[in-house]
Design brief:
Elements lengths: L4 H83 L5 H23 L2 H29 L5 H8 L1 H12 L3 E2 L2 H27 L5 H7 L11 E5 L4 E5 L10 H34 L2 H23 L1 H6 L4 H27 L2 H7 L3 H12 L6 H19 L3 E2 L3 H9 L1
Antiparallel strand pairs: 1-4, 2-3
Helix pairs in contact: 1-11, 1-12, 1-13, 2-3, 2-9, 2-11, 3-8, 3-9, 4-8, 5-8, 5-12, 6-14, 8-9, 8-11
Length: 417
């Protein structure tokens, strides 16, 4: 029987609908497979990227630890060179700092000058860098002054306040978040330092002190000081020359106690100033540039320390017996300190001021090792225990990256970009 035109049209429409439905099903299956493949590819890419980031993080961590120990070695080498300088009859710590700032000025301020725009930079940020340079110079001077009034053990203990101040300022100013492992790492490092402090305290109390710093301060090493009341002892930045208690004073006399209180206060003040300097430097290095910081700190540091040297140390410089050995030791000290100032921004850019200060805790151990070979100093086991504890604390601290808050403005800019 023949099919009429209406039935043919209906059949044609049904066949079209069937084909369309079939095509849609095929397309849906194809889309699902494509989505699944793309999802799996994204997962693989994400895993590869995470693995790559972990690899980069590990390399960065190793670099930070190595740079920290390079800085610690430079710090301890400055102590040895300072001893030689004092033995040559020159006790001018501010002048030694002035030479460092002068070298920074000649190197990095010259680079800034050649780039151009130095006048605008001085107008907009000159006052900030002047304040930062003043803090840096006076932090070194205040710790030198503190050594004249208090004991080495007190200084070693109170020096740890620098780490406390740095962490407080990093949280408040730089908006750094510290994880529990960071506090554990810092605690382990400080406990390691306490081993040396306890050993020094026991030796001093028994009158049989063999600590490296105490030996230097009393002229008790194999080669004697020209002036046994003068010595070079470690500060957070470098080793500083100072005068100790008067020989007629006992440690527990009323005069000595009053001096000790003043000295302890000065140590805490210097710790605060060092923390301000470190946090300011970390901010500048991460937000601006290391060359800008070093150039400007060289300029204003040279001015401030130069004026201070003229006012306080010009007579000692004029009266010094200038010979080849003294000049070479001064040159070595200055190059070592300049190298330290050049490496610190790299470490701060890769990590933080907290890691920088924790790394410097190992400098006492390196000073001991130098002295064993150079001055035939007696080896002390507590220093190795301290070294191991400090290293373990550093590993714990750097295992967890520090996190910083992102401001609303930064989030808005990131969204726009």
């Amino acid at each position: 029987m023949a099919m009429d035109s209406g039935d043919e049209e209906t059949s044609f429409l049904l066949s079209d609908e069937g084909e369309a439905e079939t095509r849609n099903k095929v397309k849906t299956v194809t889309d699902e497979k494509s989505y699944e493949q793309s999802f799996l590819q994204e997962q693989d890419f994400g895993a590869e990227r995470e693995e790559e980031n972990n690899s980069v993080s590990k390399v960065k961590r190793v670099k930070v630890l190595v740079l920290g120990q390079v800085l610690s070695l430079l710090l301890s080498s400055q102590g040895i060179l300072s001893e030689y300088i004092v033995r040559e009859g020159l006790n001018t710590p501010t002048f030694q700092s002035f030479l460092n700032y002068l070298l920074l000025l000649l190197i990095f301020f010259t680079i800034l000058w050649r780039r151009g725009g130095i006048v605008d930079l001085l107008k907009t940020r000159g006052l900030q860098y002047f304040a930062l340079a003043a803090v840096d110079v006076e932090a070194n001077y205040v710790i030198v002054l503190a050594y004249r009034f208090t004991s080495l053990v007190s200084i070693q203990i109170l020096d740890c306040f620098t780490i406390v101040f740095v962490m407080i300022m990093a949280r408040g100013i730089l908006k750094t978040h510290f994880a529990p492992f960071h506090y554990i790492g810092v605690s382990v490092c400080v406990l390691g330092m306490s081993g040396i402090i306890t050993s020094d305290a026991i030796n001093q109390a028994s009158g049989n002190d063999t600590s490296i710093a105490w030996s230097l301060s009393t002229g008790n090493s194999s080669k004697q000081w020209q002036n046994p009341n003068e010595a070079c002892l470690p500060s957070w930045k470098h080793f500083s020359c100072h005068s100790g208690f008067d020989s007629e004073e006992t440690l527990w006399s009323e005069n000595a106690k009053s001096k000790a209180y003043l000295g302890d206060s000065l140590v805490i003040l210097s710790s605060f100033l060092y923390a301000c300097s470190n946090i300011g430097q970390e901010y500048v290095v991460k937000e601006r540039s290391a060359i800008e910081f070093l150039g400007m700190i060289g300029l204003f540091g040279s001015i401030i320390s130069g004026m201070q040297t003229f006012l306080l140390e010009r007579h000692q410089i004029i009266d010094a017996d200038w010979n080849t050995a003294l000049v070479l030791h001064l040159l070595g000290f200055s190059l070592s300190l300049v190298s330290l100032y050049m490496i610190v921004p790299v470490l701060l850019y890769m990590s933080s001021a907290t890691v920088f200060n924790l790394s410097l805790l190992t400098s006492d151990v390196y000073t001991l090792l130098y002295s064993v070979f150079i001055f035939r100093y007696e080896f002390q086991w507590p220093y190795l225990i301290s070294f191991a504890a400090t290293w373990f604390g550093l590993l714990v601290y750097t295992a967890t990256p520090e996190k910083k808050e992102v401001s609303t403005t930064q989030n808005h800019n990131q969204a726009i970009n």
